[in-house]
Request: fold
Amino acid sequence: MRTETPVTIRLKDYTQPDYWITHTDLVIRIHDDHTEVESRLSIERNGDGELPPLKLDGVDQTIIEMTIDDVAVEDYHYEHEQLILQPSKAQFVFRAVTHIHPNENTSLEGLYKSGTMYCTQCEAEGFRKITFYQDRPDVMATFTTRIEADKAAYPVLLANGNPIEEGELEGGRHFATWHDPFVKPAYLFATVAGDLVRQDDTFVTRSGREVSLRIFAEKHNAHKTTFALESLKRSMKWDEERFGREYDLDIFMIVASDFFNMGAMENKGLNIFNSAAVLASEETSSDDRFERIEAIVAHEYFHNWSGNRVTCRDWFQLSLKEGFTVFRDGEFTADMHDRTLKRIKDVDFLKNYQFPEDNGPNAHPVQPQEYIEINNFYTVTVYEKGAEVVGMLNTLVGDELFRQGSDLYFERFDGMAVTTDDFVACMAEVSGQDFTQFKRWYTQAGTPQVDIEQAFDAQTNTYQLTFKQSCKPTPGQSEKQPFVIPVRMALLDQSGQELTIDCDGDFNADTQVLTLSQAETTVTFRGLSEAPVASLFRDFSAPVRVRFDRPEADVLLLATRDPNAFNRFDAIQQIYMDTILSLASGAFDRVPDAVNAVVEAALNDAELSHAIKATLLRLPTYPLLVDNSDTIDAQRLVAARDQLLNHLAVQYVDQWQSMTQSLASADPYRFDAAEAGRRELQGLSLQYWVKAGSDEALNYAEALYRAANNQTDRLNGLSAVLKSDDAGRKEALLVHYYRQWKDDTQMVENWLSLQTSATDVSVSQLKDLMQHEAFDLKNPNKVRSVLGGFAGNFKSFHDDTGEGYQFLAEQVATLNAINPQVAARFIKPLENWKRFSPERGEMMKSALSHILATEDLSPDVLEMAQKALA
Ligand code: 0A1
Ligand code: ZN
Reply:
């Protein structure tokens, strides 16, 4: 644990380092009780004049020996987690031998033990736990890594780059040496030692080079690597075709680790994955999981260019690689499956997680201006809003120029550490557009709101739209300047047909995009014989909140007939949302007819794919409802959402039943968009059918669970049962599940999260679960299954006792000493306390205060708790 007082790092203070490291030579000697790291760093002065001190980051290391050009270094000191020494030459080799203790490293940063293997996680600042280094992304070196370990226990020894040598050592030990010829920052370093099983394949690049592909896993996970390997090949091909990016090394490796803080990591040539984000089988992985794995494999692979070949100058540029890479993986998934569905899911995710972040105490720009702990900035804002910003650039320049801009970016900055400005400048250069104002999307936090008014003039056949944009203050930013907002749009007639647009605004007829750049813009549309219905922000062309008070008939037309499926989805969700919030506030005492009209239209629409139909029939989630209301009475919201759910369940019970039954299939499992859509719609209709209360439905759900030959059907059956009141049946199925699958890591994680998220759960049940043999507080996946599941279980987490808040706070305090990065993430469920009714807000606040009062708080937890309370 670090003991230093946290310091705030600011973008405006960025300066280049005083020294460059051109080559890094490492020998890592793994022993049972410690690991010895010997580094030789080829260092060169950056600039001239008097030689400044050399400052090397390093934590949790014991120094054994240090030399400069083979002369022992005696004069040095260590402060603020840096080793400081005075070189006497502008070019030299610094050598250090240090000892570290991976077996005791529960932070899972640096070198650590995961199950039976050793592995590393260096992003953002983990390399300083391995050796002394200028641990910052603008210091880029080639690397040679030799690993030595006991051969029987660790037969597989891996590092970045290409393998160059391996051999035997005394005492049953062996070594392997790897060389990475591409310069990289330390955060992309990786090494692995383990008794691993591997699956091999090859990929021939478009220029005809053969690349070896290997996926490694511990023996218990080894049967689940095929899907990831296939996904990898699809990603490699797609990146060549869509972005002209070819793989560069002779070998590409993926290692699955059961202990991992995040989803996966793009280390050069040696990606390390959370097992849950790479291992798949139809028996154990749901359709959602398959899709997620494919996307994460692609994401990490795409980083080889957007992140590795071209990297970030400093951590304030994180979205340069993450926003762009999320955009790229989103395009990949859209191309592989269903573009509209992907858009619906992405926007849903953004509104569920990023909008609340932008609307709370941790709101920060896509390019943050300061941080205490960079690990806290791997956020939905940097990733997902960052991807939206890249998507808007694509919308503004068009597909062709976007590709040209991306080519220029990769070519110009290959092997360099650059900034988001450099990326935008490439788009400006190829398109001739000026993005000065657009760049506010990178520097201003908060979700802009666009208020819209309309007027139709039957005399002149004109229709006017007035857009007023605003953005609420966010921490540290009270005033906001207008954003550039692309509005993809159409005008519809009363039958839902699109009309030709003739207007005086900044409208691009090819892309059907109207661009707003002022605080207020009025656009006049000509040649309209009757009032049109405007379909605005099609496909969510900008990450904004839209307020448009208009006749119910207009919204109904969009919800039932908009040819843009995304906007149809959006209009329906708006109707559900208004209904639930009005039921909760008491403005409505029953479900209005408009809801029945849109539900019936969706139910009876034979043109819709199963997957899209399911999205139209699903009610908004709690985070979305919370984000759209002023003060939340949590349990009234639960009751209101439940009332609508019940109403739909009962009103359409025959349809739910017949849909559930007709969507059943005995065919062998296949993961593709059509089959996944069928299973999704069946799962949803089954939930409604069970909710309507018949034994027949419950029996069907249990039978689906028991007969399932794949995890999606199994979960569809089980979750429907878990949502019912049949305590005996719930218990029996959960016991059955665990007995059947207790030897499968991913299934056990699912089993834990089902109990915390898919059914009502009390704090005492949670405590019992944490005592279960399946639980391990040192394993982030298990922690996420239990605590993450619970915090996302709105009804239970926000029950009237408020016990859940205190419980979560206690877990954060305990985790702070084990794994600060994971601990800090669990502050988020409490951070929006100000939005809840005062009494409840106080309870949430007092849980946060409990966290802040914990001794030895890590910078990660301290920063998040302080912000949440501010
Ligand atoms: N760069 C990885 C995710 C990642 C981020 C941070 C980490 O530790 C602080 C670990 C992994 C990605 O985008 O996939
Ligand atoms: Zn990434």
User: Anything to note?
Assistant: The chain is about 40% helix and 20% strand. The mean pLDDT is 97.
